[in-house]
Structure formats: structure tokens, C-alpha cells
UniProtKB/TrEMBL annotation:
Keywords: Cell membrane, Membrane, Transmembrane, Transmembrane helix. The keyword Lyase does not apply. It comes from the Bacteria. InterPro entries: L-PG_synthase/AglD. It is a multi-pass membrane protein. This is Lysylphosphatidylglycerol synthetase. It holds the Pfam family LPG_synthase_TM.
């Protein structure tokens, strides 16, 4: 495997620095002690439900990636795809200074099956793009409940233009994925809905009973901005802290829920250790 270049290392360490700096700022405003006190009062039922929904979202994400692989005539078995997905999560979350999860997938699939690295990369890129489109669509949809009626036409235009712009861009640059675009988007939409509900359950576990729409919008926005930090850590907490100045919710509760979501992500990312230790045995599906 090629050595990770210096530029990638610098970017990754910059993201870690941003996460640490943002968390430091947040905990200057909200003592970590307050967060831990809230955690001791967590409703375990809602916490478990949040974890289950998050896991479900990751499984559906695996099925979405499978669509893009199959468009390239790459027929990886679902179990192998799932194991590879969790291994990628592990690399992204716990080895930020090393090779990324997506890069490791490219390496393994190219090594095991001789698949084109360029095509694998394009599959992964469009998989991510589909997820980003779903996040943006959901933000606009939820905004209908937050903004005045006079803004509805603007939201509608943004929704339609953004969706079809992405479709035609995909058609022009990655025409091979046109046939799976809408199905992949439906998977992406479901993934984001499950994650939003997962976060709402975390809020409910901390006895939150209202303002779920604005919580959902901030949560989704943090997913977009997570690109500038390590695994979204720090950005999400900072956004909730800032949003609490304009909306009526307690920042310590939203920050506590945000950190719980990060902990759930970390927990399931650890599944990748199992596959790393016993080594993957990637298998293809039998095609007719």
C-alpha cells in the first residue's frame, strides 16, 4: 500500500486540532461536569433505541453502497460489504492520522479482486454525494416548519433545483450511476431519517419533549460541516451551543445528546476491530 502522503496527514491533524479547539471552547461555556451529571439521569430505553436506529442506518448505508458497486458490475456479498463498511468506520474514527476508511476499501477491493481503483473511488464518491443530497433535502423540508410562509416558494425552488442539479451532474460526470440514482437517494433519505430519529431519542433520554425540528436541522447541518473536523466532533457541539442563543433550548442538554451520539458512533466503529483482527475474507455474490 502506498504511504499516506504528507498533505493528507496535515489535513487530518488539522481536523483533530479543530475538534479539540471547538470542544475546549464549548466546555468553557458548559462545564463537562454538567454533561456527566445529565448522563447519570439518562433513560436507558431511549438510549438503546437510539443505538439500534443508528445501527440500522449503517446497514442501509451498506446497501446503498452496494447499488453503486453493482452499477460497475462489482458483486460483493452483503456480508463482505458490511464487514468492509465497519472496518472503514473503524479506520475513519480511530486512526485519523493514517489511511482513511474509504482509501482502505479501495486498497482491499483492488488487491483482492483486481477491480479498478478509479471505479471503486467513483462508487464511494457518489455514495457520499447521495448522502449529502439527502441531508440538504431534509434540512429544506424541516425548514418549512421553521420559517414563515413567505419563504416557502424559495425553499421549494431550492429543493427542486438542488435535487435535479445533482441528478444531471451525476448523469453528465458519472452516467453509469444514473440508473441507481433515485433508489440510492431513497436509501440515503431513510438513513438520514433514522439518524435524526436516533438523535431525537437521545434527546428524549435526557427528558427533552419539544423543539425537535430545530434540533433536527442543527444536527443535519453539523453532518455537512463535519468535513472540517474529526468525525464531526466539536462542530456538532459548537452548533448546538450557538443555536441555543437563538432558540429556546438548553445548550448543556443538546451538547450532552451530541456527545452521546458520538459515543454510539465510536461503539459501532469498534466492530471494525473484530474484522481487522480475524482478517477479512471478502467474497463475491454468485451472478446468474
Amino acid at each position: 500500500m502506498e504511504k499516506v502522503n504528507l498533505k493528507k496527514l496535515l489535513i487530518n491533524f488539522a481536523k483533530i486540532f479543530i475538534s479539540i479547539a471547538l470542544l475546549y471552547f464549548v466546555f468553557q461555556k458548559i462545564p463537562f461536569r454538567e454533561v456527566t451529571v445529565l448522563w447519570t439521569k439518562t433513560n436507558v430505553f431511549y438510549l438503546v433505541m437510539a443505538a439500534i436506529l443508528f445501527l440500522a442506518s449503517q446497514i442501509i448505508s451498506t446497501k446503498r453502497l452496494e447499488l453503486y458497486f453493482e452499477a460497475n458490475d462489482f458483486h460483493l456479498s452483503f456480508r463482505s460489504n458490511l464487514e468492509l463498511y465497519f472496518l472503514g468506520m473503524f479506520y475513519n474514527f480511530f486512526i485519523p492520522g493514517g489511511i482513511g476508511g474509504d482509501a482502505y476499501k479501495v486498497y482491499l477491493l483492488n488487491k483482492n479482486f483486481g477491480w479498478s481503483a478509479k471505479k471503486i473511488t467513483s462508487s464511494l464518491f457518489n455514495d457520499r454525494l447521495s448522502g449529502l443530497l439527502a441531508i440538504c433535502v431534509l434540512i429544506l423540508v424541516f425548514s418549512f416548519n421553521l420559517l414563515e410562509a413567505k419563504f416557502f416558494p424559495i425553499l421549494f425552488v431550492l429543493l427542486v433545483v438542488g435535487f435535479f442539479f445533482t441528478y444531471f451532474l451525476t448523469k453528465k460526470l458519472f452516467s453509469i450511476y444514473t440508473t441507481v440514482f433515485f433508489k440510492a437517494f431513497s436509501y440515503s433519505f431513510l438513513v438520514q431519517i433514522l439518524q435524526v430519529i436516533s438523535f431525537i431519542f437521545l434527546l428524549k433520554s435526557l427528558d427533552v419533549t419539544d423543539n425537535f425540528t430545530i434540533y433536527a436541522v442543527v444536527f443535519l447541518a453539523s453532518s455537512v460541516l463535519s468535513l472540517i473536523s474529526f468525525a464531526g466532533i466539536g462542530v456538532r457541539e459548537m452548533l448546538f451551543l450557538q443555536a441555543s442563543k437563538w432558540f429556546s433550548f438548553q445548550p448543556e442538554i443538546s451538547v450532552s445528546a451530541s456527545l452521546l451520539f458520538t459515543m454510539i458512533t465510536a461503539f459501532f466503529s469498534l466492530f471494525g476491530v473484530i474484522f481487522q483482527i480475524r482478517k477479512l475474507n471478502l467474497k463475491l455474490t454468485e451472478t446468474p
